[in-house]
Amino acid sequence: MTRMRAAGAVLTVAAVAFAGTACGSDGGHAKSGGTSAAPKGAAVAKARGGTAATTPATHPSPTGHGTGGTAPPKLSGVAPQASVKVGRVCSDNGMVARTSDGKAAFCTMRKGEKQPRWVAANGAAPIPTGSVKPGSTCSDVGAVGQTQQGNGLVCVKHGGTRTWTEVKGSVAIPGAIRPGGFCAPLGAKGQTAQGVVYTCTRTAADKQARWRK
């Protein structure tokens, strides 16, 4: 009888020990699960402070007036050539454009006048002089100018504002060009009176920009 009671006590102790082990095992799994899947708040905090968090890239606005204050985007190919009216006030001395009848005009201030105006170029292709800053305002859409580095700019309307926009390719200079003559801006395209196309370029031997084939 004593042996039976002792055996029963041993079984009871074993059962209690097994139950305790099982509870500890469950608690361990819960703890382990808490480590691998932290609460959402903790995950966000870790993502914000951890090195693994990635900041999404910021892209400029298609119009060039994004939150970062980026300059207007560059145009591709030959720039548009809208028409201007001879005698109308213009904003930038030395810029060139095309009139409504397809002739060349340039923006200049004549003696005795207080504002620059569009003046007919009498058929010859005018050479843009001076420089304007990309992103600055302009008066006539389609007018052609250049940067301080000699790159082509075109007056383009972005939303409700007209701004000087740099061109990736070539701008078209109105009027008849003279092969070998001085030109601007670099990369511009021009035609002779016979319709032969030339490009405004420099060479290693001649740093002066000229109309070349």
Helix percentage range: 10-25%
Structural category: alpha+beta
The number of distinct β-strands equals: 11
The largest β sheet comes out as: 4 strands, mixed
Task: Tell me what the structure shows.
- With 213 residues, this protein is an alpha+beta fold.
- Helix content is 21%, strand content 22%.
- The protein is built from 2 helices and 11 strands, in the order H-H-E-E-E-E-E-E-E-E-E-E-E.
- It has a 4-stranded mixed sheet with strand order 1-2-3-4, with no helix packed on it. It has a 4-stranded mixed sheet with strand order 8-9-10-11, with no helix packed on it. A 3-stranded antiparallel sheet has the order 5-6-7, with no helix packed on it.
- A hairpin with a 5-residue loop joins strand 9 (189-191) and strand 10.
- The N and C termini lie far apart (120 Å).
- Mean pLDDT is 73; it is low at 1-73.
